[in-house]
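Apologies for my clumsy wording, but could you write out the amino acids of a protein and the tokens describing how it folds?
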Amino acid sequence: MTKKLQIVQLCIDRDFEISRVDERIFGSFLEHLGRAVYEGIYQPGNKNADKDGFRKDVLKLIKEIKVPIVRSDCFFFFCLIRAIYIRLANIS
């Protein structure tokens, strides 16, 4: 049995709002893929790192784009994410 494909159209009007979207849906996910953590946000010895190894240049960019929430798939990152939020609160 062969199914026929249906044509679907989507029309987006940015001025038409049904309801507000919770900003947390646009959050970030942090995990050990590539260099997201090590050599990314955490790199002791980097010229831009603070005394604990967090890169201030990366934290500044995160604050600049207003990431509302950072999630992780691992409990280990709880402390890392908490440290990130503390630092973000102190960046001007």
Remarks:
- Residues 25-89 form one domain.
- Helices lie at 56-64, 77-89.
- DSSP finds two helices and two strands in the chain.
- The chain has a mean pLDDT of 82.
